[in-house]
Structures are given as C-alpha cells and as structure tokens.
Amino acid sequence: MVMPSTTYTATRLKAELLGVLDTVARSGEAVTVTKHGRPIARIVPIDDDVQLTGSVAFNVPDDELIAPLDETWHAETA
C-alpha cells in the first residue's frame, strides 16, 4: 500500500524540520519537499526490518584494504 505524501516547501521544511521528522517517524507517512514548485526530495521513514549486513559487495580483498601504502607522508601542524 502506498501512503499519500504531504508536501512541504523547502522554506517551510527548514522552519519545521524537527516536527516533520517526528511526524514521519510516528505516522510512517512520506513527506515530499519542493523548491520553486518542483519536487526535489522525499523524506521517508526507515524500515527497521531491513538488514544491511551483507548488502555491500566489496571488490577489493580485505588484505588489500589494510595493507600499508609504502608511501611516506607528513602531517602538518598548525
């Protein structure tokens, strides 16, 4: 089931963001954000049942990720 989306202008959202986030979390309803009358973003509740473990595929072996670069570098102090 697709729930209807409430629309906020970017200006109104800026003023009411914390309340909008609370409403989205509580109601599960998405909010569409517009700028100059055009939709630019959507705020949606997070599905707590979604598991992210294993959702990323690495194309580099772990050994290569943690291997030293064999390059000398110096941190500058201010």
TrEMBL record:
Gene3D superfamilies: YefM-like domain (3.40.1620.10). It comes from the Bacteria. Pfam families: PhdYeFM_antitox. InterPro entries: Antitoxin_Phd/YefM, YefM-like_sf. Antitoxin component of a type II toxin-antitoxin (TA) system. NCBIfam families: phd_fam (TIGR01552). Belongs to the phD/YefM antitoxin family. This is Antitoxin. The lineage of its organism: Bacteria, Bacillati, Actinomycetota, Thermoleophilia, Solirubrobacterales.
